[in-house]
Design goal:
single chain, Chorismate Mutase Domain, subunit A, alpha+beta, 37% helix, four-stranded antiparallel beta sheet, Rossmann fold, 20% strand, globular, five-stranded antiparallel beta sheet
């Protein structure tokens, strides 16, 4: 409630152009619907529009976690992402994470032995779907928000599950942090500053990895680029590459073993690093990023409104971005008005990648262009008016590319990631 009071003040001053409350009903606690109704009542008191989204928790997260906390968090952020995409694309999601939350997140990461990416905890601002996720109170104490909430004569929700110390975060909050404060009065501030230092370190490591990569992040890195680095920079390059793809950090032991294998394995072998729903495989002279979940067979789907992302599953969606001149993946603007069929590859598919070449079997084109075997089976084909228009992330059939000064659009694969500690 305190966060809402503060945002309402900014809105009243004209510093925020529009404000809307979205309450997530997880349908876990018997009083969950009542709590969401109270959130709407609080918004009504401040003359702010509000709505309730009811969600169903998955049996497990994409990362394999089965805990109630992780499943609720995954479902909550997926619902918020979908809502923003549908009703407020490009907008900012504001959450009331505060300094106490940040400290808990830091400690959970430290207890797992995380590096800079985990110890940096929650960023103040981060990309979120087509918009942003803003945590303006990440350096503000919980008590300060509580004091703001007292300005409104309405009750606040107290979730009784927050007292259950079987949950790790609640155990830290109820048992460990009070003990730390009793001995070290500035413990919260000190740990918060350490998280800030970790975030600064992560920024430097990210810059170093970008320099070591030498090109824009993509789905492959040349082996020669990796071999030219020291072992610690090799590991950092792969970690930051994973982060840029929205993945969790790979386990340290697995990562170091993979680095050893890509340098010593027989050229015919394909060493692979797998963790969660992600993978990296050496194939010929490159290592390739793999989205293991999307490599499974998917069902054909019609993409009608191109201003909206196309959801393929709970972890993957497609969206369009403006293409640069001469982009081989660009689709001409006038094709956007027609429905696109996104489908799996068929044996009879042929492709024409150049205006001076005749169409040839897709299998032949894959072999000529060193497309990794695992990617061939899981490619996403775009069909327009019963003609093959392109392969997502690989090429666009020449007749469908922009001509002259016509605007072009590139299809991007978006992997949805959730910070399971938030």
């Amino acid at each position: 409630m305190g966060a809402l009071v503060w945002l309402h003040s900014l809105h009243t001053q004209g510093l925020i152009c529009a404000l809307r409350v979205v309450s997530i009903d997880h349908q876990i606690h018997p009083e969950a619907a009542t709590w969401s109704a109270l959130a709407v009542q609080q918004a009504d008191y401040l003359n702010i529009d509000a709505e309730i989204i009811r969600i169903t928790l998955p049996e497990r997260c994409a990362q394999g976690h089965r805990s109630l906390e992780a499943r609720a968090r995954t479902a909550r952020y997926a619902a918020l992402r979908d809502w923003l995409e549908q009703y407020a694309a490009g907008s900012v999601l504001v959450t009331a994470h505060h300094l106490d939350d940040q400290v808990e997140t830091f400690l959970l990461a430290a207890l797992r032995g995380s590096g800079a990416a985990g110890l940096a905890a929650m960023p103040t601002m981060a990309r979120f779907g087509s918009g942003w996720h803003w945590r303006p109170f990440i350096n503000t104490h919980r008590q300060a928000l509580h004091d703001l909430a007292q300005r409104v004569p309405l009750p606040c929700v107290i979730d009784p599950s927050n007292q259950d110390t079987h949950f790790d975060r609640n155990f830290l909050r109820q048992e460990i942090l009070p003990l730390l404060r009793s001995r070290f009065p500035n413990a919260i501030e000190g740990i918060g500053k350490t998280a800030q230092h970790a975030a600064a370190d992560l920024a430097l490591l990210t810059e170093l990895a970008k320099q070591d990569n030498g090109v824009e992040w993509g789905d492959k890195i040349a082996l020669s680029q990796i071999h030219a680095l020291t072992p610690s920079r090799q590991a950092n390059l792969i970690r930051i590459w994973a982060k840029e793809h929205g993945a969790l950090m790979p386990p340290k032991a697995k990562l170091h073993e993979f680095i050893r294998q890509i340098q010593t394995a027989n050229p015919a072998q394909r060493p692979t690093l797998c963790w969660g729903r992600w993978g990296i495989t050496r194939y010929r002279q490159h290592v390739y990023w793999r989205r293991l979940a999307s490599e499974a067979t998917f069902k054909s789907v019609i993409w009608g409104d191109k201003s909206q992302s196309l959801v393929l599953d709970s972890n993957t969606r497609l969206h369009l971005i403006p293409a640069i001149a001469n982009d081989p993946l660009a689709m001409a603007h006038h094709w956007l008005t027609l429905p696109w069929l996104v489908r799996p590859r068929l044996p009879q598919d042929t492709i024409k990648s150049d205006q001076h070449q005749s169409s040839r079997p897709l299998k032949q084109w894959f072999q000529e262009n060193n497309v990794p075997p695992w990617a061939r089976a899981s490619v996403m084909m775009i069909e327009i008016e019963q003609q093959l228009a392109g392969i997502v992330g690989i090429l666009t059939h020449h007749p469908f590319r922009p001509r002259g000064d016509e605007l072009g659009w590139r299809v991007e694969i978006e992997t949805i990631s959730i910070n399971l500690d938030e």
